[in-house]
Amino acid sequence: MECKTRNKIVQLLFISMFSLILLTGCRSNDLFGDDAENVAAIEVREYVSDELVTTITDTSFIESLVQELESANSASTANLDIPNPDYRLLFMDSDNMVIQDIGYYTEKKDYGVVGRYLTSDLHLAVTTELPIEEGE
Q1: Residue pLDDT, tens place only, 35-83
Q2: Are the CB atoms for 83 and 124 separated by under 8 Å?
């Protein structure tokens, strides 16, 4: 009888651990909400001056970047004193409405995770470079 109880406990622990692993793998940053598929362009602006640098309209690049940002590991920057990003990225829909505003560093930064992208309080572990020329 004791052996059956022990087996059930082991099975329950195994199922719990497996479920936890699955749930961890399925996490999302939910940066874009229901609008993740509606991003039509990314305006790249100088962070300080807000001057338009370029607009990215490559659909495959945008879809790939949005997917990376949504599923990236992240670290909180809420209690860190970090420099401003080099650029602001405005993720726009087809009506030119801003869906999301994300900071972008031209160099990889390590603020708990290594990446280039910064939301209001999260540093995202995405190192994808934007297709822009330095000094554009």
Answers
A1: 888 999 999 999 999 999 999 999 999 999 999 999 999 999 989 899 9
A2: no
46 — phi, psi (to 5°)?
Answer: -60, 135
Q: Report the C-alpha gap between 55 and 82 in whole angstroms.
A: 26
Q: Containing H/E element for 101?
A: strand 98-110
Contact in structure between 87 and 104 (CB atoms under 8 Å): yes
CA terminus-to-terminus distance, the chain: 74
> Which tens digits make up the pLDDT trace of 89-113?
999 999 999 999 999 999 999 999 9
Does 26 have pLDDT greater than 70?
A: no
Q: What is the Cα gyration radius of the chain?
A: 20
